[in-house]
Task: inverse folding
């Protein structure tokens, strides 16, 4: 087996050997076993955590079935987002159109579930058969008073990243629709955190301790009414740059709300995320509180990390995740527990992300865009990695190769953000890398 | 409560499926293709389809699942996906070196009118398929049928391509498996072995999706039906298809192509379906049933006898795929249980007829439905109307089980939250014993957890 697809050579580089700019943002080569998903997937994961909204998937059954409650985005209240609704299109609708079916589905759903809003996702064939989804949504909004927002996320119409943009477009239709609300002082929105394993709750606790008010989280533990008010915040704090930066830019333009990019993963980035917000509000008191908080957390965390660091020192890690921004945080966090990153890649990273990664990584680290299982297996072999960090499709491959694994995607079971998350991360990595199971491998 | 919106008011729904009891065709085609050796499934559509199917299978089997995609773009959806498929075939044979590419279509490629048959023929003409390598195809639009029919279509695609009829008739039978687990495939082979019948099992996902841990990653594990075996199917004495939905199409195609007569029996789930399976094999292979199999059956009957006082009259809700749940319902009835509610998202008129035959006399109060709107919402609403003692179905039953406090046995696809299905079979007498054990375990765990102190029992 050749392992490497010819056209992909410029999407792979080794730091210190070939430091040319990596090619990225390319469509996957037809016939590759790509780990990437589609536009619909991108939109669905961004909007999914809005818990009091209907998420109706307009198309044949599959797209609804595969995205039914698969993302551990927790809600402190309503749970409508965890159900699966589909128009379940059949041959008849493919020929005669599915608008009628969509209309009836929306009407019965709104009656049954009394949601605060609704998103209608158009999947691949909806555009092709020519359904006017927007018109149906408009009609239902008029008749029911519930905002029904079309999400035109046909799978083929780009990459997962384009799906993020479309989801942001849907949010932007809601933002600003609460015209009476006045935000209290020091209010922020958090963009790009999805409350996986309750991470958002941890973050909002940190900010609360500093005297910062969380107005709208987009979209972790999200609520339609909070999104409506989001335009009144004084600052947008954006994580996971890939998915939400577009919305932050738009809100800056439209409402004059500045934004900052942060990461909540690892000690340095987490602390920066608090300090930067304090700096922004120019409040000494807030900065003081942030410093206290960080000091307090670190005094607990650092000693607790020691024991894991000792045993992980010098072990090697391979990273392959959705967004490159996350990869950057991971490199730093792994360093903190003594580990060295030997392979790092992402599905959707951009030029800036990859440059940052190149700068950050050690000599000899392999950096890759839109990789596939064969490549990844080969890289891991070449570099002798002990740990793989990835998502659902990478886990069994890592295990087959005899590597420890940490899910840094939506199937994480423990919070990995924040200080508590850093300890969870160390524990999880340690447990997997140092598991006794590896000794039984033939 | 996650399902707090569900009420007992069942309203006619024309246009909506809530919490589906099925998924779409392509994932079935992908699973069937994984059961042939050295095969790389290929999804002709958008990238997301392939990614979702691989994830779904990976979550269920906890194994790497490889498949390629045509990676449709805006352009392909306008001009057709032919160019994508040509490039894909080139790339796949060039890089991943499978013996076989099994292409299935998607809702998108079908809607824009891509004709896989013609495209694959063109690829052959243009020399894109290297000598000794193969490309097979199946039409599996997501707006028709369900994952079960997708599985059936790929199985049909396989037998239309490989089996050859020569002058020599082989003393072997073809065994076409409906959608069951790798452990079940292994068990089917063991039973056939005990009967001393030579057979070809198609597909065969054992040693593909239950591979041992060796520290090596094999893109094409050692399992799967081989090409010579599939070719030889054309000379077999007989075909036995296990499950009407999954295998009838393929059995007919094989009969048409190579004149191999066929019998369709149920998947051997439960006592009587296993009896019929063993009889069908014995008849097809012209052998008698060995004592060891009779003993297995005897042990199953013995276990049911020992425990029947705990089973009598228990009300059960069942959901899943027709080939799997019809024999299961028969088994429940044979154990004196009452399968009062049944749904299956997979369409097909035969389902209602078979259900009527099964429950009509023995459990006249039973409600059942299949096809669109036969979903998890409906079965929950029925349960709200009058509760059950047990739910049997795939992982998605856990919401109802938790909300209503009803014991739950996981069977079917997908199982996302437990292991076991890959290792312990549910087919044959041993499989039936496992089903019985799980049912009793679930019922008795609830008794133990909820019985008042004074009636809490040590011996059961």
Result:
């Amino acid at each position: 087996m050749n392992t490497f697809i010819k056209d992909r050579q410029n999407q792979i580089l080794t730091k210190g050997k070939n430091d040319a700019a990596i090619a990225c943002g390319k469509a996957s080569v037809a016939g590759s076993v790509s780990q990437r998903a589609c536009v619909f997937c991108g939109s669905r994961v961004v909007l999914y955590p809005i818990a009091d909204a209907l998420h109706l998937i307009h198309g044949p059954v599959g797209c609804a079935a595969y995205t039914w409650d698969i993302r551990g985005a927790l809600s402190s209240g309503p749970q409508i987002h965890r159900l699966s609704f589909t128009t379940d299109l059949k041959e008849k609708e493919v020929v005669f159109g599915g608008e009628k079916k969509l209309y009836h589905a929306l009407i019965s759903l709104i009656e049954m579930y009394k949601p605060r809003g609704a998103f209608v996702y158009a999947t691949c064939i909806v555009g092709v058969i020519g359904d006017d989804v927007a018109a149906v949504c408009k009609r239902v909004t008029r008749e029911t008073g519930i905002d029904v927002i079309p999400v035109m996320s046909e799978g083929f119409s780009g990459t997962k990243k384009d799906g993020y943009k479309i989801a942001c477009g849907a949010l932007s239709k809601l933002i600003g629709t609460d015209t009476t609300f006045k935000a209290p002082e020091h209010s922020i929105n958090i963009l790009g955190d999805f409350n996986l394993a309750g991470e958002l709750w941890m973050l909002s606790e940190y900010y609360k301790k500093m005297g910062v008010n969380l107005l709208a989280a987009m979209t972790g533990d999200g609520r339609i009414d909070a999104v409506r008010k989001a335009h009144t915040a004084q600052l947008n704090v954006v994580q996971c740059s890939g998915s939400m930066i577009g919305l932050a830019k738009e809100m800056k333009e439209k409402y004059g709300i500045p934004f900052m990019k942060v990461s909540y993963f690892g000690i340095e980035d987490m602390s920066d995320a608090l300090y930067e917000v304090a700096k922004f509000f120019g409040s000494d008191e807030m900065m003081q509180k942030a410093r206290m908080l960080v000091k307090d957390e670190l005094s607990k965390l650092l000693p607790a990390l020691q024991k894991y660091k000792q045993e992980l020192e010098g072990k090697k890690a391979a990273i392959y995740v959705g967004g490159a921004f996350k990869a950057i945080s991971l490199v730093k966090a792994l360093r903190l527990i003594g580990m060295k990153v030997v392979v790092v890649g992402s599905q959707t990273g951009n030029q800036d992300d990859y440059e940052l990664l190149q700068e950050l990584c050690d000599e000899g680290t392999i950096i890759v865009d839109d990789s596939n299982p064969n490549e990844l297996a080969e890289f891991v072999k070449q570099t002798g990695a002990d740990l793989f960090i990835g998502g659902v499709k990478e886990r069994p491959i890592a295990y087959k190769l005899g590597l420890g694994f940490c899910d840094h995607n939506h199937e994480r079971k423990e919070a990995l953000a924040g200080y508590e998350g850093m300890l969870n991360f160390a524990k999880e990595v340690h447990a997997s890398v140092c598991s006794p199971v590896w000794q039984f491998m033939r | 409560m996650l399902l707090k919106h569900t009420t007992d008011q069942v309203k006619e729904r024309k246009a909506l499926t809530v919490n589906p009891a099925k998924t779409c065709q392509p994932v079935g085609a992908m699973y069937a293709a994984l059961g042939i050796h050295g095969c790389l499934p290929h999804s002709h559509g958008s990238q997301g389809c392939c990614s979702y199917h691989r994830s779904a299978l990976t979550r269920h089997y906890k194994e790497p699942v490889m498949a390629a995609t045509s990676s449709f773009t805006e352009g392909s959806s306008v001009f057709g996906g032919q160019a994508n498929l040509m490039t894909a075939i080139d790339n796949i044979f060039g890089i991943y070196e499978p013996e076989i590419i099994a292409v299935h279509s998607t809702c998108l490629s079908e809607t824009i009118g891509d004709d896989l048959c013609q495209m694959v023929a063109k690829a052959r003409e243009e020399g894109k398929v290297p000598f000794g390598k193969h490309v097979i195809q199946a039409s599996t639009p997501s707006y028709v049928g369900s994952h079960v029919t997708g599985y059936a279509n790929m199985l049909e695609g396989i037998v239309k391509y490989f089996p050859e009829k020569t002058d020599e008739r082989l003393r072997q039978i073809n065994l076409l498996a409906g959608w069951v687990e790798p452990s079940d495939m292994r068990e089917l082979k063991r039973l056939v072995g005990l009967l001393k019948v030579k057979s070809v099992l198609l597909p065969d996902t054992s040693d593909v999706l239950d591979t041992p841990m060796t520290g090596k990653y094999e893109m094409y594990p050692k399992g799967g039906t081989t090409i010579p075996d599939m070719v030889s199917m054309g000379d077999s004495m007989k075909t036995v298809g296990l499950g009407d939905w999954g295998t009838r199409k393929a059995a007919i195609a094989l009969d048409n192509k190579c004149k191999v007569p066929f019998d369709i029996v149920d998947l051997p789930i439960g006592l009587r379906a296993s009896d019929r399976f063993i009889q069908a094999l014995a008849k097809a292979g012209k052998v008698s049933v060995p004592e060891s199999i009779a003993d297995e059956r005897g042990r199953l009957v013995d276990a049911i006898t020992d425990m029947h006082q705990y089973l009598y009259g228990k009300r059960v809700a069942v959901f899943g795929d027709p080939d799997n749940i019809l024999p299961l319902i028969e088994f429940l009835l044979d154990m004196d249980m009452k399968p009062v509610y049944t749904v299956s998202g997979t369409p097909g008129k035969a389902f209602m007829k078979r259900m009527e035959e099964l429950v009509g006399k023995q459990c006249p109060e039973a409600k059942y439905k299949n096809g669109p709107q036969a979903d998890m919402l409906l079965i929950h609403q029925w349960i709200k109307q009058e509760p059950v003692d047990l739910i049997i179905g795939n992982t998605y039953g856990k919401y109802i089980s938790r909300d209503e406090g009803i014991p739950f046995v996981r069977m079917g696809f997908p199982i996302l939250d437990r292991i076991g299905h890959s290792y312990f079979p549910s087919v044959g007498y041993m499989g039936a014993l496992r089903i019985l054990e799980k049912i009793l375990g679930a019922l008795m765990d609830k008794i133990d957890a909820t019985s008042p102190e004074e009636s809490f029992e040590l011996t059961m």
